[in-house]
Amino acid sequence: MDVRQRLSANLRRLRLEQGWSQEDYADRAGVHRTYVSDIERGSRNPTITVVEKLAAPFALTASDLLA
């Protein structure tokens, strides 16, 4: 599994565990809902800065989200 696939799977799993819609999560992370959708589908390659923003609502580090 490559890093984009790991990010996609981890992001979706964590978001669903919290019971958040993509829109709820996107608001918490400060990104657009379609961006979250694209990442979860593996069609985006976010920067490390965006990965940090994506990790913050889960109180995780970027490396935790990518593990």
UniProtKB/TrEMBL annotation:
**Coiled-coil regions in this chain?**
none
Chain ranges of the HTH cro/C1-type domain: 11-65
- Which SMART domains did the record assign? HTH_XRE (SM00530)
Species this chain originates from: Sphingomonas citri
Q: Which UniProt keywords apply?
A: DNA-binding, Transcription, Transcription regulation
Note the superkingdom of the native organism: Bacteria
Protein name listed in UniProt: Helix-turn-helix domain-containing protein
Q: Is the keyword Transcription regulation assigned to this protein?
A: yes
Q: Does the keyword Mitochondrion apply?
A: no
